[in-house]
Amino acid sequence: MKPRWGWMCLLLLSVAMVTWAQEEELDEDDEEEAQVEDGDVDSEADSGEMTADANVSFQVTYKTPVPTGEVFFAETFDDGLLSSWTKSKTMKEDADEDIAKYDGKWEVEALKENKVPGDLGLVLKSRAKHHAISSPLSKPYIFKDRPLVVQYEVNFQDGIDCGGAYIKLLSDSPDLDLEQFHDRTPYSIMFGPDKCGEDYKLHFIFRHKNPLNEDFEEKHAKRADADLRKVYSDKKTHLFTLVLNPDNSYEIFIDQSSASKGNLLTDVIPPVNPPKEIDDPKDTKPEDWDERAKIPDPEAVKPDDWDEEAPAMIPDPDALKPDGWLDEEPEFVPDPTATKPDDWDEEMDGEWEAPQVPNPACQTAPGCGEWKSPTINNPKYKGKWKAPLIDNPNYQGVWSPRKILNPDYFEDLEPFKMTAVRAVGLELWSMTSDIYFDNFIITADKEVADRWAADSWGLKKLVASANEPGVFTQLTLAAEERPWLWVVYILTVGLPIGLGVLFCWPKVSTSQLFYKPKIWTFCTLHQFPLFLFVNTHIFLIYFFSEEKENRSGDEDAAAGGEQEEEEDEEEEEEEEEEQASKSNETPSDDEVRL
């Protein structure tokens, strides 16, 4: 087996070298592909059209999206202004005075990564502060017979520890003042991502009006089915869409893929409609109500041989004291080298005693001190006797109060018809800054929102995908952060191959070989496939290194190839001219004599 393991080690080493060569080759290719093509930037004042700079490996043209249908609100921030937005000037109630003010900063700027020239967004710039900003709709949205489609983009550029990126659709009311926008300002819908710790949420909350007392109550949609962790950590721009239909159905999309769907009547907590019947709060359980399903058998009798006093463990009667056991020697003795400290006060500290140390005499003996037999389970142990259980003939079931009609019952079959919306607002607290918002749109047509997304978010997605490293580059980057991954890579590639070779080519005895030249003395038949495999890998290493050198000189060769051909042609023409001139010269007298 030793030769086999030697070849196995050589195999793994060669696989590691080839893997490294391939990774380096692919890294160079990825870097070349990721190079930015310098392009001219054409700007038109009337269209806002711009072309890409050195951020992507292909030419990108961005044009501010324009709604293709009726919208109630649309905002791109591409003008770099917040003229239509109002920052809150109020204070948050029930908060410490030093943090109660809505003084968080907002800026309009481009993305940190994967920039699209000309595309700007709203960025939350402060951490550990309250932020509030809002903008009115072009016209109020009234919940009647048309769907509501709300869509916007979010990018957690620095990830997020604790904070939200949700929006509020502020209710239409006479006393709505955007400068006084705060956490208790009435809203109709709250929608968007929120995270704190390991709790990942995608909110869809609406405020339902009780038709009896006209009080509002928040209704929370069920949690999204999608895994939301990447949304908060991958630093990419994500598209959030809410579609709410007049038939009370709703659907939530993340990056245009369905993440959750349901119905306002059946899939929210607490339910929109209260139960028709409730427990009677005045009803009480009768004193003689028997809820015991099982009872001890009253006719059962304890057996005469049942010993309740028998212990659970007893000394092992078959155990014997080991020979050489030192009964008279204590297990620990005072340390003979210890001395009483000079500052020891017997009146205050008591009589001084040397610390205990293991008895040296016990080190060579089986044990010291009084020997005790080890304990074992008592075969006669039964424990305390209890009568077996039988069905309770008087069992009446689990008591519950009687039902009465709910005095607060109502039935609202159209919870879609909420309070009209007049403004959109962001009221947020975050422990992480640089949260990017862009391309808000509120419409009644999903197709309008889809076209809007194609002209805005779709371009961001394309740029991010183009700048994303390849699979091999990602593996290399991961291994740079965690070097132990190289071992995983090598074992993943080399171990299956090596085991396959060992099992497919079993050992063959020397007597079975018909001919064995001296040059092959070191390599038996069962080792030849491994030998060939290793040499093939060595060749591949050389091939990759040569390929790199050849590739580096390809451009020079291509550039100088035509020049060399032209020089060769000129030399041939000069030689032909010299021969022609010699043939036309008159021979000398000596040459004639010869």
Automatic annotation (TrEMBL):
Residues 25-47, 343-352, 562-578 have a biased composition (Acidic residues). It holds the Pfam family Calreticulin. The chain crosses the membrane at residues 484-505, 525-544. It is a single-pass type I membrane protein. One of its GO terms (cellular component) is endoplasmic reticulum membrane. Residues 25-49, 265-373, 549-594 are annotated as: Disordered. It is found in: Endoplasmic reticulum membrane. Residues 276-304 have a biased composition (Basic and acidic residues). GO terms for biological process: ERAD pathway; protein folding. GO terms for molecular function: calcium ion binding; unfolded protein binding. Keywords: Acetylation, Calcium, Chaperone, Disulfide bond, Endoplasmic reticulum, Membrane, Phosphoprotein, Repeat, Signal, Transmembrane, Transmembrane helix. The keyword Magnesium does not apply. Residues 1-21 form the signal peptide. It comes from the Eukaryota. Disulfide bonds join 162-196. Belongs to the calreticulin family. This is Calmegin. It comes from Astyanax mexicanus. The lineage of its organism: Eukaryota, Metazoa, Chordata, Craniata, Vertebrata.
